[in-house]
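Good day; I would like, with your permission, to put a structural problem before you. What I wish to show you is a protein chain and, alongside it, a tokenised description of its three-dimensional fold. Thank you for your consideration; the sequence and its tokens are set out here:
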Amino acid sequence: MTGFDEMPGVPRTFRAAQRLLRCRPLGETGLAMRAMRAENAGGTSQDVDLSIPVVADLRLGAYLEVPTGYLGVTPRMLAAWRVSFEAVLKVALKNSTSGALRRATATPWGDADYVDSGPAIAAALLRPDLAPFLRGIPHPLVLVPSEEYLVLADADDPESVDQALRE
């Protein structure tokens, strides 16, 4: 496994990393595969992407957008930066969701709405104040059948809930 100091594009300080941080949704299967790849390459749990649960098996992770690609934030990086994952995720959410969530819209699907954006879903569940598709619904019912889309209904509207459950 490539050591932290050898990873191209990884800033040595949290301050330098902040402008590169973004967030992404991760499913349990994707995380398991990352762990398996790290282990097969001789790595440890210190080399696996960090994430937090959002809902069901959807998790939210942070990554660095560097010229060579996307690098998931790992415990090794946190140790080098001397910062918590919560602090990293806060910056990553700020960098990647405010604009994306403002642009994200829900598509009507019968009496329910459909959002086809994994990052918007994961971010909206953590920062509903930034999601325009959650506004105006007094009691939103959010269903996340996969990490790729979300079905949104109004819990006060039985037809909307029924439609959402059938999707």
In short: The radius of gyration is 18 Å.
